[in-house]
Amino acid sequence: MPEGIIVGKWDDVQGVVLYAKYPETVEIADYNLMRIFTSHAVGEAQAGFLALTLEEENMNVASYFTGIHQKPQYFISLLLSKDEDAKTYEESLLDIATELLEKIDAPNFNEILAEAFQRLSKAIVLTDEQRLALIFKDDIHKLAYERLIKGPATISMIANYIQENSGVTRVNPDILISPLIRLGYALQGWVPGYAEQFVFLVRDFTITRAPAEKIIKQAVKGEPTQRIARRYLRNVKEFFTNYNVNVDESGDLAEILINPEYYEIIKMLREKPLLLTEIKSCLGQQKLGCEAALKNLSEKNIIEVYPAENQGDNWILLKSDIIIHTFFPEYLLEALRGKLASGELSSETVIKHLELLQQNYSP
How far is CA 294 from each of CA 93, 243, 252, rounded to the nearest angstrom? Predict the structure, then answer.
C-alpha cells in the first residue's frame, strides 16, 4: 500500500521545493527531492512517468513530471514500500495527476491531495481493455482522442483543442494520450520545421458487443444443462439477430468495463456458466453488492439468469461479451488529403503520417 504522496516544484531561486505532501507525517530528504527531479529532467526532460528506487529511504517511487517546458514545473510522486512495483501505479497516477494539476492553485489543495491519495491507495491495476474504455468514459480523455481522429497534432495543439472545447484551463495531454501510445494506437514522431513531436493515430477502436463464443460452444454441448442451453442459444441468437452496432453505446459499455465489480463478474463468466453462489464466493468482499450488479447486467443484456433446478440457486451465463474492436482508420486518408489541400498540414507532416499508417496497416 502507498505510504504517501508528494508534490515537488522547481523554483528559479530555491531550486526544488516541496510544494505539498500527504500525510503530514511523511518525510523525504531534500537531496531525494532533487534526485526525483533530476531523474525526470535528464535528456529531453519531456513530461511523463518514471519509476525509481530511493535506497536511502528504503522505498520505491512512482512519479509523474510535467516536463521541462511547462512553467512552473511540477512532479507528483507516490511513495511506496520497497516490495511494491511502482510501474503498477502508472495508469492510476497519470489519471490523478491530471486532476491535481488542474487544481494545483486551489486554496484547499491539501484536502484535494489527501482525497486523491486515498483513491490511489485503493486503485486497481487496469487491464488494456479498461485503459481504452477510460478514453470513452472520461470527457477530457475523449477530447484528446477526438483531436487525433481529425488528424496529426502536437501536444500543444491537443491542449488547445481540449481547452477550447471543455473550458478546462490547465491540461496535460501527455497523460491523456499515454494509453493510446502504450497500446500501439498512436505513435509520436518528428516533422521538419516543428519544435514539438507530432502524435499520429495509426489504429482506431470502438467498444461493442459480441457473442460469448466460449460459452456458446459449451452450450452447444448442453452445458450447464440441456434445458438451459437450448433457451440460452435461442435468446442469444434472437438478441444478435436484432442487434445493430451503435457508436453511441460505446460510452455505456465503457462504463461497465470500468466498474470493478461488473468487470470481475464478466471476466469470470467469459470462462464458463457459474452458479450465483460460486460468483459470490469468488467476489469475496465485493459479494455484498453482487445481486444488484447481476440485476443491472441482466437489464443491460450482458448476462442471462436461469433457475437451477432443485438447487435453490441460479445459473448465470454471459449473453453478450464486451470487446474492443480495433480497425484501420481509413477515414484519415481523406482527412489528410483535405488538410494538405487547404494548407492546414505541411506535405512533410502528411507524408510522415501516411508512412506510419502504411507500416501499421493490417487488413
Answer: 30, 21, 16
Name every residue whose Cβ is closer than 8 Å to that of residue 297 and which is 6 or more positions away in sequence: 256, 262, 265, 266, 303
Q: pTM to 2 decimals?
A: 0.74
For CA atoms 240, 243, 247, 250, the dihedral sign is negative
Extract the C-alpha cell encoding 42. Answer: 535528464
Secondary structure of residue 190 in the 3-state scheme = coil
Neighbour count for residue 45 (Cβ, 10 Å): 16
Count of helices and strands (H, E) across the chain: 15, 13
Res. 125: pLDDT tops 80: no
- How far apart CA 164 and CA 329 sit, in angstroms, is 25
**How far is residue 302's CA from residue 342's CA, in Å, rounded to a whole number?**
46
Domains and CATH numbers, the chain: 4-121 (3.30.450), 128-203+329-359 (1.10.10.10), 206-324 (1.10.10.10)
Nearest 5°: the CA angle 273, 257, 208 is: 85
Per-residue b or e along 62-88, where b marks 16 or more CB atoms closer than 10 Å to that residue's CB? bbbbbbbebeebbbbbbbbeeebebeb
List residues bridging with 59 in a β-sheet: 54, 81
Farthest-apart Cα atoms in the chain, separation? 77
Q: Are 42 and 13 in contact (CB under 8 A)?
A: no
What is the spatial distance between Cα 137 and Cα 226, in angstroms, rounded to a whole number? Answer: 39
Judged by DSSP in three states, 21 sits in strand
Residue 304 pairs in a beta bridge with 317
Beta bridge partner(s), residue 207:
324
Tens of pLDDT, residue by residue over 167-191, are 877 777 777 888 899 899 999 999 9
Q: Environment class of residue 345 by beta-carbon count within 10 Å: exposed (0-12), middle (13-18) or buried (19+)?
A: buried
User: Could you tell me the three cell numbers for 138?
Assistant: 472520461
> Would you mind telling me the total number of residues written for the chain in this entry?
363
